[in-house]
Automatic annotation (TrEMBL):
Keywords: Signal. This is Fibronectin type-III domain-containing protein. The lineage of its organism: Eukaryota, Metazoa, Porifera, Demospongiae, Heteroscleromorpha. Residues 1-19 form the signal peptide. It comes from Amphimedon queenslandica (Sponge).
Amino acid sequence: MEIILSFLSFMLLFNHLDGTPQFTTCPSSVCLSQPVTYECNSGADTLAWIVLDTNGDRVGSPVAYTVFNNVGDTGSIGGQFITVLTVGGSSLVSNITFTPTLNMNNYTVQCGAVGTLVNCSIVIANIPSAPIPSSITFYSDSLTFPWSPSNSSCLSHYNVNVTSIEYTISTNDTSLSLPVPSTNDTEHSISVVAVDTGGRYMDPVDQRTFVADVPEFVTNIQLNQTDLSIDVSWEEVKKIINQYFMLFL
Ligand SMILES: *[C@@H]1O[C@H](CO)[C@@H](O)[C@H](O)[C@H]1NC(C)=O
Ligand SMILES: *[C@@H]1O[C@H](CO)[C@@H](O)[C@H](O)[C@H]1NC(C)=O
Ligand SMILES: *[C@@H]1O[C@H](CO)[C@@H](O)[C@H](O)[C@H]1NC(C)=O
Ligand SMILES: *[C@@H]1O[C@H](CO)[C@@H](O)[C@H](O)[C@H]1NC(C)=O
Ligand SMILES: *[C@@H]1O[C@H](CO)[C@@H](O)[C@H](O)[C@H]1NC(C)=O
Ligand SMILES: *[C@@H]1O[C@H](CO)[C@@H](O)[C@H](O)[C@H]1NC(C)=O
Ligand SMILES: *[C@@H]1O[C@H](CO)[C@@H](O)[C@H](O)[C@H]1NC(C)=O
Ligand SMILES: *[C@@H]1O[C@H](CO)[C@@H](O)[C@H](O)[C@H]1NC(C)=O
């Protein structure tokens, strides 16, 4: 049977037990939309969870466990923070699991025994900075656009924006090969952003622009994206002359 006492009665009943609580898992930053678990050992036969919002106000009601709880007993704070007792006995261990949202930035998760709460802040990782594009390499009928890999721990994927075909391509790679666009003497632009698990990204740092002076149309460009690959097909151009590109900041 699940026993979750209110924090007040928990304090009254067990205030003679003092622990040295510690977070055994407290990530320095967390990713949006990716469930995360913090782990706490209260060092005592009681354990309490409290969540404070950005203003320092309590979120929901605290969850408290005692030596009378069973391992596996769960609790909930505000419906968003789920706790579970993982180790019973004289030194209780419990996990709290939640899915970070932007408004949880700077929330404080507290854990401990009576009178000795320790803190773990919820820090949402920064938006990944935009990758730095490298030079485009031109081949007879295609181009390759590479960029610097993102160091963000919350990277989801890269979005490459090709204005000439008004298309945004998602990829996990750090370069993309495309057919030389079909429109004659038109300026084309390619830019890349790093998208995090919350769908956030920084504006592209720059945009590679080039003009392909194609003597004949490349026709029927098709880009079909599946989960893991991008299939590109086009009708071959016989000759391509005078390709160049410029870098605009
Ligand atoms: C509790 O959290 C820790 C750290 O994330 C994890 O290794 C462990 O498997 C979790 N235990 C349970 C029962 O969820
Ligand atoms: C979070 O806390 C830090 C340090 O206390 C502060 O600089 C920052 O502005 C806070 N962010 C939010 C979103 O409240
Ligand atoms: C824990 O966080 C609360 C609220 O931000 C703060 O008042 C308290 O001083 C912190 N305790 C520790 C040990 O840092
Ligand atoms: C990524 O690199 C930038 C610039 O070098 C640095 O400021 C940032 O702290 C790094 N982030 C991570 C998660 O390593
Ligand atoms: C692609 O680039 C065009 C032109 O710069 C811009 O208007 C559009 O918003 C971009 N699309 C995305 C998805 O970034
Ligand atoms: C990127 O990799 C992840 C994990 O392997 C996968 O789920 C996702 O579909 C990939 N995204 C793209 C655009 O290929
Ligand atoms: C592309 O432009 C070049 C130079 O202006 C011209 O000679 C060629 O015929 C054009 N190709 C097409 C398919 O319009
Ligand atoms: C892309 O999809 C269209 C319609 O399903 C199909 O006709 C075409 O052959 C596909 N192209 C590639 C390169 O797979």
